[in-house]
Amino acid sequence: MAEEKKGGFFSRLVSGLTKTRDNIVSGMDSIFHGFTHIDDDFYEELEEVMIMGDLGVQATYDILDDLKEKVKERHIKEPADCREILIESIKEQMDVGETAYEFEDKTSVVMMIGVNGVGKTTTIGKLAGKLRAQNKKVVLAAADTFRAAAGEQLKEWANRSQAELIGGQEGSDPASVVFDAVAAAKARHADVLLCDTAGRLHNKKNLMEELRKMNRIIDREFPEAYRETLVVLDATTGQNALQQAKDFNDVADITGIVLTKMDGTAKGGIAVAIQAELGIPVKYIGVGETIDDLQKFDADAFVNALFAKEDEN
Ligand SMILES: Nc1nc2c(ncn2[C@@H]2O[C@H](COP(=O)(O)OP(=O)(O)OP(=O)(O)O)[C@@H](O)[C@H]2O)c(=O)[nH]1
Ligand SMILES: [Mg+2]
């Protein structure tokens, strides 16, 4: 049963990464097979394919440096033998580490931030479902008071996941919703408080100011809570997602990334780029719209899916 589920998840990831595979991996494969020697031209062509994909400049250089070093160390002569080394090197780069999910076992406040439509509210619902399945007490803060429908949407997720919801009137101060939610979380001895935020306000400066204000409230009212700030990025948007992560990183201490819509036509290389450029780990990936469609990021599974050959899936 568990096997079956995993298989389903993996094949969804494989199909979501089709576009990435077509853009990057097939290009790499033709280089691995088109060259007879490992020389400067070989590396230059690899570099071009990787940068043209969404791996980004930083990740490309890091990965190629690592490849060159290993080729020397292991006295590799065949271009085709570089494929496995490259896969190994990307996996190493993407490894999330042991402490990434500590908040799940602590009294914590999770801020979910990101621009509009990336999947913040949906991710909160999925994460609430995951935590409830572990018997955690979960409170949701509907701090997106900008859109009338936002609170309703979160309410549905609260019902679905059986979490408690603290909301506010449309147009009310999001920071005051956070204030109320912190008080409720403390009074009810909740394990995790998940805060949904607006993706769009009157302007970007406004949005960033609101985030700062909410963070100040949490710092002041709940200093003992473990803090997690997740930026949600839509994996189909490629380089835009990287820029968004940078913008939010300027105003908040981002502790992780959630990459959504990996089931769609994802530009999956962006996961590698973000890690290399910002040093922020991808912690979860969204692979669909239902409550079960959130997965912890598994670097091995991701890279295997990225480099999967047709006959392997
Ligand atoms: N296919 C797919 N769709 C997703 C995923 N995550 C979210 N969505 C869909 O993306 C759309 C936007 O999701 P929301 O959760 O409302 O996004 P948001 O960031 O809260 O948007 P705003 O509140 O407007 O800022 C919805 O239709 C979701 O069902 C995913 O992993 N895969
Ligand atoms: Mg929302």
TrEMBL record:
Main location: membrane
Residues binding GTP, per UniProt: 114-121, 196-200, 260-263
Pfam families registered for this protein in UniProt: SRP54, SRP54_N
Gene3D superfamilies to which the protein is assigned, alphabetical: P-loop containing nucleotide triphosphate hydrolases, Signal recognition particle SRP54, nucleotide-binding domain
Domain SRP54-type proteins GTP-binding: 281-294
Location within or outside the cell: Cell membrane; Cytoplasm
Subunit structure: Part of the signal recognition particle protein translocation system, which is composed of SRP and FtsY.
Record family assignment: Belongs to the GTP-binding SRP family. FtsY subfamily.
Protein name, as recorded: Signal recognition particle receptor FtsY
Source species: Dorea hominis
